[in-house]
Write a structure and sequence with these properties.
By secondary structure, the protein is of the alpha/beta class. It has eight helices and nine strands. It is 28% helix and 23% strand. The longest helix is centred in the first third of the chain and has 15 residues.
Length: 231
């Protein structure tokens, strides 16, 4: 859809060809690569060794399909938000969900700590989208800025208060990531820092309207929440 590019003059294009733009600062391409390497050395990659739902040993540059929970709920949320269509894909990877959102008419924003993934995402409908590279451990989210935030296969508990605050009243969150049950599968994240405890994700959004709340053990052990922020 053309809508994705029509707004670029309003907020400015956050491209990645010459530099990478974060929230309020610029990061050179070399620095972005260096910081990515440092963070991966320090903590590993939560995506390593797994796909969106079914754990996979696919090569990192092999495109992964969108998560089924996002595929199911994204059109429903699009109808609910109406003309309010600002969407943030947090830890967006190569943009598998951002591209789907753009097709549905969302105005897409996306951030990831990996420059190569952002570059792969910035094509087609996302060519003029506001995509940037930032350290998700320290970046700041603007309050009441987005009508929907999507976060999958990424767990950073310290960002939860800011994530909740970044959603506008009446807006939504679609969140899915691994639980401690994934340890039984032998693949995916190993550290408890990157694995949800039972009902933990439910508790984060318990005071919102829970449209979907599920924890499953197979084919991967994940928790899923679709929640709407009170008006």
């Amino acid at each position: 859809m053309s809508e994705q590019g029509d707004e670029r003059d309003k907020d400015g294009e956050r491209g990645v060809s010459e530099h990478v733009v974060g929230l309020g600062h610029q990061v050179t391409e070399r620095k972005a690569n260096d910081e990515t390497d440092k963070r991966e050395d320090r903590r590993g990659d939560q995506r390593s060794g797994h796909g969106p739902l079914i754990i996979s040993a696919a090569r990192p540059h092999v495109a992964q399909p969108p998560s089924p929970v996002v595929v199911r709920w994204l059109p429903i949320v699009r109808k609910q938000v109406g003309n309010r269509r600002d969407l943030l894909d947090l830890a967006m990877g190569a943009g598998r969900h951002a591209k789907l959102a753009a097709e549905l008419g969302f105005r897409v924003f996306g951030v990831d700590r990996d420059l190569s993934r952002v570059r792969r995402a910035k094509t087609g409908l996302l060519r003029h989208a506001a995509l940037w590279v930032d350290d998700l451990e320290v970046m700041q989210l603007p309050p009441q800025r987005f009508d929907l935030i999507i976060c999958t296969n990424y767990l950073q508990r310290t960002i939860w208060p800011a994530l909740r605050a970044a959603v506008r009243p009446g807006g939504f969150v679609i969140y899915e990531t691994f639980t401690v049950g994934q340890l039984l599968h032998g693949t995916g994240p190993r550290s408890p820092d990157f694995l949800l405890q039972p009902l933990e994700l439910h508790g984060v959004f318990a005071d919102w309207e829970l449209c979907h709340n599920e924890e499953r053990a197979k084919p991967a052990a994940v928790a899923q929440v679709v929640a709407r922020k009170p008006e």
